[in-house]
Amino acid sequence: MCRAVLDKPPDHEPGKEFLYSNTGYIIAGAMAEAAADDSWENLMTRRVFQPLGMTHAGFGAPGQPLPTSAKVAQGAPITEPCGHQANGVPVEPGPEADNPPCLGPAGRVHLPLADWARYATLHLSAEPANRHDLNDAGLKPLISVESLRRLHTPFGGPIDKSGPKYAMGWGVVERPGSRGVRLTHAGSNTMWYAVVSLRMAENRAILIGINQGGDHAARAAAEVEAALQKRTTARTAHP
Q1: Angstrom distance (rounded) from CA 83 to CA 193
Q2: What is the pLDDT of residues 147-204, one digit of tens each?
Q3: What total of structural domains would you count in the chain?
Q4: Confidence band (pLDDT; 50, 70, 90) for 66?
Q5: How confident is the model at residue 67 (pLDDT cuts 50, 70, 90)?
């Protein structure tokens, strides 16, 4: 995929226009594999998941297909939620239940919310006031505060009235009346939808995962996020 994409000229002059592309992450994954002489899955496991204690993170769709006998049995156990297409049709765990392996660095990781929260805590620690949470959670500071802030710094100049900016994997938003910036990212493989929102100054992360894709999943996630933010803001104002 990298060879096919890089053989063509870019759609825009580098550094001049923003264009989100999964291919950028795929290329970054291939660069990491070449530099470390290892697969990106091994690198993620050894350098991110294990140090952060993300013991249940994995690759591809979660869960295992049920054997034929279990499918027809009454009350067959469900060990994992499966993804659903936008029309509500479930997709059994397997090769068709996630992106193709070549898209792995662009989004082919599954993990429970508790593990995801550990990753969010790492990024929240870019604010010095939040740094103690790493020690409280028993997490290792994988990279320096300076490196985290570089990941969070948007391209194309500071945030202004022109709208949200994009950093290294993070949308950067600052809305009127808000306390500082909000880092956010959303993604879907058409069968799952996930969004993370980090309120840096509030030391708060909102993580939402939905086992169905489509626009209605995105709208539902936006409603849940707004409700959670309103609830937490009210608690902060009236302890």
Answers
A1: 9
A2: 999 999 988 665 555 566 889 999 998 766 567 789 999 999 999 999 999 999 899 9
A3: 1
A4: low
A5: low
Measure the CA dihedral 68/69/73/75, to 10°: -70
The contacts of residue 39 (CB under 8 Å, 6+ apart) are 33
Domain that holds residue 140: 111-239
Let me know if residue 128 belongs to a domain: yes
Q: What is the mean pLDDT of the chain?
A: 85
Whether 22 is in a domain gets the answer no
Q: Residue written as tokens 């969010």?
A: 120
**Res 92: pLDDT:** 86
Alpha carbon distances (Å) from 51 to 6, 133, 177: 33, 15, 37
How far is it, in rounded angstroms, from Cα 209 to Cα 221?
Answer: 8
**Order of strands, edge to edge, in the sheet holding 193-199?**
165-166, 171-173, 182-188, 193-199, 204-210
Is residue 189 within 8 A of residue 213, CB to CB? The reply is yes
Opening angle at CA 186, ends 12 and 19, nearest 5: 5
Q: Hey, what are 204's tokens?
A: 């708060």
Determine, yes or no, domain membership for 121.
Answer: yes
166, 157 contact by CB (below 8 A): no
